[in-house]
Structure formats: C-alpha cells, structure tokens
Amino acid sequence: MAIRPARPSRRAHPARAPRRPRTAVPCATIALIGLLAAACGATEPTTAGMAATTPSTTPAATAVTTTAATTATATATPHSQGAGTPAAGSGAVPRARATGPSPSPTSATPSKPEKAPTPIASTGPGEGAVNVLALPGYVEWGGTDPKVNWVTPFQARTGCKVNLRTYDAAATAAGARPLDPGSFDVVAAPPEVAGKLIDEGSVAPLNTSLIAAYPDIPKRLRRLETRKGDAYGVPYLWGVNEVLYDSSKEGPRTAAALYGGTGKVMLKDSPLTIADAALVLKRRGADIEDPFQLTPSQLDDAVKLLSLGKPAGRVYWRDPIEVVQGFASGSVRLAQGTPYQRDVLARGGRPVKAASGPVTGWADAWMVSSAAAHPSCAYEWLDWVSSVAVQKDAAEWVGLAPANSEACAGRTRRICADDESFDDVHFASRPAKNCAGGDGVCVPYGQWVERWKRLVG
C-alpha cells in the first residue's frame, strides 16, 4: 500500500522576502503544524535559507556541531521555490546558531572521483563522526525546540558525532554553488540537486541491504533516484503540488484554471512550476510523456501557457506562509500549494480544497558522498533517518509525508492517506538533455532556469 500526503480524494526547491505580519492567520492553528509553527509568536524573522543558529542553552548544543554552509537570506525552501532556482522542503524553518566549525560543503571546483563510485560491500566500526549536509529543518537536534531532536539519540546509539551543515539547494541546483564530495558524508537532496550530484559522480550508488527499513519504502519512491538499476538515494520526505481554492466560492474543475480567468492567482516561484503547466497540456492531449523532461517545442508551449493571464493578477510565492495569508485574507482566487498549506488553513477554519486531476510531486532523498570520509557512520545515518521513529518526527516537523510507509500512523496520520498507487502523481526529476534516459533530446535544467527568470521578470 503506497502512502501519499493527505489531499482531497476524488473517490470520497532565489530571493526570499522577510516575513510579513501574521495577524491574518490564527496562531493557535499554525502552532499545531510543523514548520509554520514559527509563524506564530516568533521573536525574530525565521527564514529557511538563513544561517543556522542554536541557542547555547539547548540540551543538544554541545552534542552536535552545526554551521551554515551558506548564509542565504535569499533562498526559498526547496519545492516552495524562489525565483530562478528551486528550493527544498515545505515550510519556513527556524534558524540555528553555529556552535563550531565543520568541513565546508561548497567549493567552486569540486573534487572529481578518480573512478566511477561503487557501493560499499559492508560497514565496519563507526568512525566516530559523520558530516551531514541537509536542507534547513530536515535535521533537528533540539536547537529550535528541545522536544524536537533526532540527532542526540543517534549519537548515543552509534557513537557517531554529527557535524551538521545546511546548504543553498537553489544555488547548487543551478550550478552556482557546487558541492565538493570531499566535504560531506551524507546529503539530503531534492530532485534538482540529486540528479546533478549523480551525473557529476559526487555521490555513490548504495548497498541498500545495509539499510534495514529500505524495503518499507514504496517501490515507486525507491525508483526515483536510480541509474541503470543502482539506487543512489534513500527517500526521506515527499509531497505533491495541488491547485488550492476557496470552496465557499465557485471552484475550478481542473488545474487549467490557474492560467485563465480573473482574480489573484499564486504560483510557486520555481522553474519546476513549468512542469505543472506542461501537465495541463498533457491532459489536453499534448504528446508529453514526462512533464519534467520536455523537448524545446514542449517547453515553449508550457511557458506560453504560463504567460497567459494578466500580470497584475499573478503572484509568485516564495514562502509557504504567503499562500496561507492569501486565503486567510480572502484575497486569493487560486493558488498552487501543498497539502500542508491546505491543512493549516483547514485547521484555521478556512474552507480551502484542492482541485481534482493528476499532480506533480517530489521526494527528497539522502545520498552518500563518493568521497565519504566516514562511510560506516554514513550508513548508520541512512539507517537511522529511514527508521519509523525518525520518519514520524521529521514528517511532523517538516509537514511532508514520510517515505517509510510504516511511519504513516499515529500523530503523522493527518498528513498521510492510503492510496492504491502513485499513478496520478508525476514525480520530479532534474530536467536533462538526455530526457533522464528517455527518448529524444530534451531541454536541460539550466535553460528552465533562464526561461523562468524571463517569465517572472
């Protein structure tokens, strides 16, 4: 049984603006939901791409070394992507203060492996440390909330000290800030970054037999980051993109309503939003197999569809709270959003639902560096973050569905729903010239970025 983020059943990854006043959204409601809890009662702006900070009084402050790989106040969270480049995650994440040094995860000239990376046959005694490169909010050690901590138990269990850094996934995906495989052991990567790392040889294929919970992850998710039968990523969290509307008003029949009509419409400020327009064209009969792998003419058609409508009525959101505020104030007709945002609004008493039809989705995955200095601890980490307990904690905190289907129960049940298949979800892959192994010649990701910049202006 596959698991998907909660969404209405048809049968029943740029610059990030400072947060705006939050009086339009019931704080007691938002405080119940993962990352947007920071939207209420926050004493300072909380931006996912900002340098991590950890209060020195937190219990875990001495247990984990953390620092920011990038000080990117202009970075959107992955998949709530900002202008020009993608981002990762579903919501704003409180900042964390650096408590010590860590190997730099970025380099203008990343080292290249001397030969093609191969999976390790087995693990030995832990090396005593693991360098973790993560998306903001994807690894918590009690620095934001003392009750949210899956790092300290890992260290106690394995003896592997976690050296944690966050990175600018948007700039990495676009090639502006490449990652040196010698600077990390494991990395949490959205599809736009994962595909790049695999193609560069920066990450190694995995020996999945060393990861106890790997069989509990649905095959559809496990197949996403593979090459020639080799798995390169362990799926961590995933979600889908929906067309949200106020059900107290006349709702749209399909996602095509985003590209016509009158009234304010909100789209995610991300190059991969082009894929959502391509999916609409596919439903209209266009010969598009994968909305994330488009030929030049297909990309032209998708961008043309996105260009329809009055610019004054089009808003490109970078922070998930913008969608919540838009519906809470009644100023938005339609918005491209996620089940997480819809859930926040529902708990706040707003009658927001999702239009029917196929959707795009994504899964973020953990990967091992092809030059990992601590391979045994790296595999201990993969085993840990795919376990039921950590998957539940991460899903509840981030607001995305856990990849491990066994974790979709109890307190995380509200963000999951059983379904028979993933057939109506088109999962993201990095747009590639070779069409990600398909037929023909497609437009690579860099050109998606350039087209999106011109479209958004």
What's the shape? globular
What is the β-strand count? 17
Give the rounded overall mean pLDDT.
Answer: 78
Report, as a whole number of angstroms, the end-to-end distance. Answer: 43 Å
Q: What is the helix tally?
A: 12
Helical amount: 10-25%
Summed up, what is this model?
The protein is an alpha/beta fold and 457 residues long. It has helices at 27-30, 152-158, 169-174, 191-200, 219-222, 273-283, 296-307, 320-329, 339-347, 375-385, 388-398, 445-456, and strands at residues 2-5, 65-68, 129-134, 161-166, 186-189, 226-227, 230-231, 234-240, 242-246, 265-268, 314-317, 334-337, 352-354, 359-368, 401-402, 416-419, 425-427.
Kindly describe this structure.
With 457 residues, the protein is an alpha/beta fold. It has 2 domains: 2-107 and 123-240 and 362-421, D-Maltodextrin-Binding Protein, domain 2, CATH 3.40.190.10; 242-360 and 427-456, D-Maltodextrin-Binding Protein, domain 2. Helix content is 23%, strand content 16%. It is built from 12 helices and 17 strands. It has helices spanning 27-30, 152-158, 169-174, 191-200, 219-222, 273-283, 296-307, 320-329, 339-347, 375-385, 388-398, 445-456; strands spanning 2-5, 65-68, 129-134, 161-166, 186-189, 226-227, 230-231, 234-240, 242-246, 265-268, 314-317, 334-337, 352-354, 359-368, 401-402, 416-419, 425-427. The strands form 4 sheets. Strands 2, 3, 4, 5, 8, 14, 15 and 17 form an 8-stranded mixed sheet that branches. Strand 3, helix 2 (152-158) and strand 4 (161-166) form a beta-alpha-beta unit. The longest helix has 12 residues, at 296-307. The termini are far apart. The relative contact order is 0.20.
